[in-house]
Amino acid sequence: MRYFIQMLLLALSVGFVHAQPDSDSIIGKFKGEFSTNQRTLRIAIECSSTTECLFDWGNSKGNKFNSVLRFEDFDIASNAIECIRRRDLSRIKNPEILAEHRSLVPMLTSGAKLEKCWDMNNPTPGYTLACTVNQTKFADDNIYLFVAAPSRRGEGECGYMIFPLSR
Q1: What are the structural domain ranges in the chain?
Q2: Nearest one of 71, 28, 70, 30 to 48, comparing CA atoms
Q3: Whole-model pTM?
């Protein structure tokens, strides 16, 4: 009987481990909300596989990303993170950039670095990326959505707008 109970507990613990979020994957649902004085933007990504995701951006719902690929050379995204860390907030007037910075402060101050990225291939390769970071505190429940930003946003622009999304 004791052996049976031990095996049952072992099986349950293995099942529990497999049920935990997999930071090596983008499978799952992630969402976030970002506000400025002028508006609130709601973003959600739901990936049913490592190659297919649905994307909601504001009022635009159910956009398909069906060519998602693991992105190995993500220096451009890492450079955007470092650019944001070096920003002089006293010179920034754009409310979107300030809201972005506020949402990233916990990750930025931790010193976390990007660990894995996926290219959503929408609308073109490299335009929209989803990345995880190397610190468990953030990696298990978060992805960071990088969306290429127009270069005329003013002081503090770093090439991408970055949105933390949570499970």
Answers
A1: 21-166
A2: 28
A3: 0.78
